[in-house]
Amino acid sequence: MNPEELLYAETHEWVSLDDGVATVGISAFAVEQLNDLVYMDLPAVGAKLSAGEEFGEVESVKAVSPLYSPVDGEVIAVNEALPENLDWLSEDPYRLGWIMKAQVDNEDALRSLLDYAAYQRQCSESA
Amino acid sequence: MLYRIGAGGVIKGLRPLILRVAVACIVMGFVLGEMTQPLAKTPLHAWHCSANASMAPFAGFEMPVHYGSIVTEHHRCRNGAVLFDVSHMGRLRFEGDGAAQLLDHLLTRQVVDLAPGRVRYALVCDARGGILDDVLVSRVCTPAGNDYFLLVVNAANRQKLLTWMQPHLADFPRVTVSDRTEITAMIAIQGPRSLQISSGLFKTDLRKLRYYRTVVTEPFSKPVIASRTGYTGEDGLELIVRAEDAQRIWSNWMLAGRKDGICAAGLGARDTLRMEAGMPLYGHELDESINPFEAGLEFACDLEGRSFIADDSLQKLRQVGTPRIRVGLFPEGTRPIREGANILDTSGASIGRVTSGGPAPTLSRPIAMAIIDRSQAAVGTTVVVDNRGRSQAAVVCPLPFYKRGT
After folding, report:
1. Residue A24 lies in a domain
2. Of A41, A62, A122, the CB nearest to B358
3. Of A33, A34, A39, A62, which to mutate for an interface test with B (greatest number of B Cβ within 10 Å)?
4. Which of B341, B212, B211, B361 is nearest to B274 (CA)?
């Protein structure tokens, strides 16, 4: 997945929408800032999420970070191998490091997400 | 997207964009409200910035948390050598007639019998036996024949101790106490290759300096106090140098260790290393509401045949026994348990709390320290940790988690 074509939440989750299904992960910037990931929790398949709702968490050596759903919808798949392969998040955050797929209820909600340029601006302001 | 883990568990509410500060807040349980004062900089501050360190406030100083990866720095220390800037630690000098007697009165360890060139770990306890600080006391002898004592104290406790000891100084009018923190820097080299890297840099062959000994020597013609001490569970040295010499000594040490893969390590790795080594950290395993017996530091109390500020209370506490004790925990599974988490016995009654916890890079698993009821403290006992709303089993294990050479 090309990071330039993704949408981003202010809380650093990325979204790729394809035929009503959103694939969600966290950005390379977030992974780098978190530093040394050691643990993650995935949502349950079938869970109903609204945008902004917590759906999992990642832990680094020193911090715990909740993951917030960028979309309204139902979880239809999770990357079950990811918690055992946290390196994927730093090595390949936009492909191997995907976290969940959700069937989106309301695509309008995606309009509040940032495009790549806006997200880059947010990151450079906080770096 | 970040939570802060501090005393009392997880606090939500940091904006997602201040990850760096939040990471450091976790390292030391720092309260954001205290960040209003301008931060002090160590003499190595410019070096850290040029090395792209992630900087954060710690006990009033802006300190490096890591230079890229806490885990990498941790492993380098276990397998090679790393340099830490620990200039935030307080350095107090006691000299003049009665300096040994004054310190003997203030500390839980005997000081009057401390031979020149020796270092001792000790506690400062108040009259109730609560721990005000844990310290290293050294008897330093300069080549010119000056003999004085140096107390290395925790950064956050320096002012508190200076204020607290004030009334006791009156009985020792010929003792001068000077705070050397700001005019000096402190650098630690830690790891199995530390001494080999340092050999040749100093006038004295420090490979001959024994554990918990100190010497005044010169690297690169700069006077320094070198001690065979540390806070990582590895061999190494801690150096106190003049502030103006710090940058040069640091850079030369880096150069000398280049082929051994030396790197700088920040407070993040310092915390994971000391945790694996089972070493207590003030503000976590130690504070004024915890006494030395609960902290498992009875060895740091010389109670026989001497009188000092806390001796009465400590004698009594030892006699009566304390209901709780510091233990190590191995959480089940891979999810770390963190400071502040409540601990229950298998029937659901609260028996204590986690004082430090997180991943142990050397052991590739989570570890924690906790202060819990003695009745549940036997090695092998299973307890239940409330890990942010989820119950997670943990097993009491012996400390330390890691011992070098094993």
Report:
1. yes
2. A62
3. A62
4. B361
Q: What is the DSSP letter of B3?
A: B
Complex ipTM over 0.85? yes
DSSP H stretches of helix in B327-369:
none
pLDDT of B332-356, one tens digit each?
Answer: 999 999 999 999 999 999 999 999 9
- Select from 3.40.50.1580, 3.40.50.10700, 3.30.1360.120, 3.30.450.40 the CATH code of B4-89+183-276: 3.30.1360.120
**Domain annotation covers residue A122:** no
- Residues A8-17: b if buried by 16+ CB within 10 A, e if exposed: bbbbbbbbbb
**Degrees (nearest 5) of the Cα angle B263, B270, A92?**
65
Q: Is residue A86 part of a domain?
A: yes
The alpha carbon of residue A76 is apart from the nearest alpha carbon of chain B, in Å, by 23
Q: Topology of B90-179 in CATH?
A: Alpha-Beta Plaits (3.30.70)
Q: Which domain holds residue A47?
A: 3-106
Q: Count CA within 13 A, CB hemisphere, residue B315.
A: 10
Q: Cβ–Cβ of B70/A61 closer than 8 Å?
A: yes
Chosen for mutation from A8, A10, A35 (greatest number of chain B CBs closer than 10 Å) is: A35
- The DSSP secondary-structure symbol of B286 reads B
Reported confidence tier of residue B405, pLDDT bands at 50, 70, 90:
confident
* Inside any domain, residue A113: no
CATH of residue A81's domain is: 2.40.50.100
Q: Identify the residue among A8, A38, A61 best suited for mutation to test binding to B, counting B beta carbons within 10 A and taking the highest.
A: A61
The A-side interface with B (CB below 8 A) comprises 10-13, 26, 30, 33-36, 38-39, 41, 59-68, 83, 122, 125-126
Q: Confirm or reject contact between B75 and chain A (CB < 8 A).
A: no
pLDDT, position B146: 87
Compute the nearest-CA separation of A121 from chain B (Å): 12
Which CATH class for the B323-406 domain? mainly beta
Q: Cα–Cα distances in Å, from B157 out to B57, B130, B153, B365?
A: 15, 14, 7, 32
Sheet strand arrangement including A13-18: A7-8, A13-18, A21-26, A100-104, A73-78, A48-49
